[in-house]
Design a protein that fits this description.
Length: 110
Amino acid sequence: MAAKRQAFRKLVDEALESLPTEFRPYLDNVVIQIEEGEGDLYGLYLGTPLPERGHDPSPYPDRILLYRRALEQDFPDPEELRREVITTVLHELAHHFGLGEDRLEDLGWG
């Protein structure tokens, strides 16, 4: 089990490394957690999107939850899993930057 979690974490790290460097300062107060969850949900953003915040920083980090089992069950091929983890991480980060589901659908990231 630990090996699967480590391999999954590497995929998440790969997704984060693919971000342009100018976005990274905005992620200082974002924690990405890997949960075991099963079902239809691959990821979830918990926080206040950047455009909705005031000038005072939040004392608590925003969180992105990634559901490892759901992703691994729906994408058993390693390359498909890699692509979907990257897509899911970027999708949830887009919520952090203020993009809603409708806009993400328009962009092909729904």
